[in-house]
Amino acid sequence: MTVAAHPATTPADPAGPACMAGPGGLAELYAEIQQFYARQMRLLDDGEAEAWAETFAEDGVFGANAHPEPFTGRAAIAAGARRATDDFAARGIRRRHWLGMLSLEPKDEHTVFVRSYAQVIETPRAGQPVLRASTGCADLLVRRDGRWLVLDRRIHRDDLG
């Protein structure tokens, strides 16, 4: 008896087994992407705006419903991140980004669509932590020169339309 494959896992589907045929498959990819985000968010939270921007492709885009226009290009992304990190530092606010619930959709061996939730926690100097934002994040990651980069990030804050 032959059992038909589920359409979502047929080899023609980029999220199916053909895309996971490399060493370690999806589990290894998932761990790799989690490490990418752990490093990336730590850079931002430590105020290393330029190093954080280096995790975006040179032609990367950072869009958010909290900003009127997306930042396009690594230089613009770095400048926006630098302004924000300097502002929080001047006000004595420590920010932490917590990403979780990652869902990966490999498109090919060099491209992965990732959806996640992110919470932004702010702690004022000598104050109590406050959950400042709850967001959904949609990233298109590309592997270039052996490392993952964000090609396109879209942030949707839950409290905004």
From TrEMBL:
The SnoaL-like domain, residue ranges: 28-154
SUPFAM superfamilies the UniProt entry points to: NTF2-like
Tree of life domain: Bacteria
Name recorded for this polypeptide: SnoaL-like domain-containing protein
Lineage of the organism: Bacteria, Bacillati, Actinomycetota, Actinomycetes, Kitasatosporales
